[in-house]
């Protein structure tokens, strides 16, 4: 069953200048897919546009079969698509608990406290210090709080933009262990990453985006060899998506 699909998708900041230039792919329920590609390829633009934060300029996005093209971000969280942007994904001046409380406002009132407890159980680092300011968390813990905020509504699909950015190798390991647990709990993951090794360890399938177009879509096994990935990043296409 398809969890999320995009078809002929175009997106960008200027209607005359699409950054994402006609991308099509489908993510199956329960899959973990990574989106790789060189800097400036349009990876963030692609997932922000799917998440309703950048204008869709053409094509279609479906979530569990429903058309969600152009639906704004706050409405998508309710409809089952969680999104963790790369930056500004928590409120540093509020406590950990307050960060979760704000996110829980998307959930029915009677379920809020239970959902917050569930997140504390899923992310034990947060449970240790619920009343500390989020700004005092380590980079990795901040990413966990950001993920907890996005998971509060129990979305079947979670998209994350570079959760490992700026983290030490040890913290990258912790964040990916956490994401593996989230995936094991049944959440479909779409993960934009620069840290190719970490991403290929978690995802079973990779999409490679080069200059706003899909250069590759296939199992991660085929990309463990860095020469193949290097060639793709330089603009070579694999046969399946060649035009
Ligand atoms: N807010 C914006 N307004 C206008 N252009 C933008 C904006 N954000 C990004 N761009 C442009 O869109 C293109 C793709 O950027 P994007 O951030 O999507 O790439 P990326 O693949 O995520 O790169 P990185 O790996 O560096 O994060 C770039 O040319 C960039 O300059
Ligand atoms: Mg980016």
Fold and architecture overview:
With 243 residues, the chain is of the alpha/beta class. It has a single domain (2-90, 156-241), classed as Rossmann fold. The protein is built from 9 helices and 10 strands. The chain has helices at 43-50, 73-79, 96-104, 112-122, 124-127, 139-151, 169-184, 196-202, 226-233, and strands spanning 2-11, 20-28, 32-36, 56-63, 66-67, 81-84, 157-161, 188-192, 205-210, 213-219. The chain has a 6-stranded mixed β-sheet with strand order 6-7-8-3-9-10, sandwiched between helices. The chain has a 4-stranded antiparallel β-sheet with strand order 2-1-4-5, covered by helices on one side. A hairpin with an 8-residue loop joins strand 1 and strand 2 (20-28). Helix 6 runs parallel beside helix 7 (169-184). It is globular, with a radius of gyration of 18 Å. The mean pLDDT is 92. The chain binds adenosine-5'-triphosphate and magnesium ion (MG). Adenosine-5'-triphosphate is lined by residues 13, 19, 37, 39-45, 194. The site of adenosine-5'-triphosphate has 11 residues, from helix 1.
SSE blueprint and pairings:
Blueprint (H helix, E strand, L loop, with lengths): L1 E10 L8 E9 L3 E5 L6 H8 L5 E8 L2 E2 L5 H7 L1 E4 L11 H9 L7 H11 L1 H4 L11 H13 L5 E5 L7 H16 L3 E5 L3 H7 L2 E6 L2 E7 L6 H8 L10
Parallel strand pairs: 3-8, 3-9, 6-7, 7-8
Antiparallel strand pairs: 1-2, 1-4, 4-5, 9-10
Helix pairs in contact: 3-4, 3-6, 6-7
Summarize the structure in short.
This protein is of the alpha/beta class and 243 residues long.
Describe this protein with a few key phrases.
single chain; 243 residues; alpha/beta; Rossmann fold; 6-stranded mixed sheet; 4-stranded antiparallel sheet; 10 strands; 25% strand; globular; binds adenosine-5'-triphosphate; binds magnesium ion
